Amino acid sequence: MFRRFRRDRADESRLELAGQTLEQLETLRLRVAQIEAELRERSTREGALQARAVRAEADVAATQQELHDLFGRVAATEEAHERERKRGDAAEAQASASVDERAELERLLAEQTATLERLRAQLEHERALRARAEQEAARLREDVDRDPPAPLWKQIATQLDLLEGLAHRVEQALNRLPSLRLVPPPAEAEAQAEEGYLCFLPAPSGHELIELHGPPPALGAVVDLGDDRLGEVVKLAGSPLPHDRRRCAYLLPIARPNATATEQRRESPLGRDGPAQSKIL
Question: pTM (2 decimals)?
């Protein structure tokens, strides 16, 4: 009986130990299941992390491509800005050169304007001198016509000497203004020589207009009119006839003395042009 009791007690101990072992096994099984669940969850998270890493790598590659494109656009923009800057510098340099050229042109224009004003003043002075000479010559002609002296050639010689002095002073004044002296070109001088010129001089019955060949005489020259008549040029002007381009020499009649000093000083165009043909118009 005692042995049976001991066997029962040993069986109970083994049963109790088996129950504890079963409990431990159940606990281990649950722990293993929990670990497997955790492993599956971790595997899922790792898969998600790997997917996110792949997407991140793709995003990084796309970002790098965008940065590369952006760097290319920035470089292109910088090159365009550099070209625009160079173009602006060139335009600024051209504008500066244009301003300098305009200043130079304005300076030249101012100088030419001042020169023109000086020439205009000199021309007005010359016109005044010529007007005074013409007035003096007209006054002398009026005096001769109004009160001719008994020895006419002496009176005319005296007035002629005065007129020569006045003409000499006028010529000196004109020589001081060489820029205003109007010299016809050779073609125009040849045309005037071919066309001839007119002589206007007082006559007993009024005035006489004579046509002569050759170039017009100079101011102060003595013109041989033929028939022992001489005339000194006191004025040169245009023809009084309409539509006539020839020059007209206004003469002051003078006597023809025999071998006088006055005649030797005077210049006659006949020595240059030969005998001139004349007619009264």
Answer: 0.30
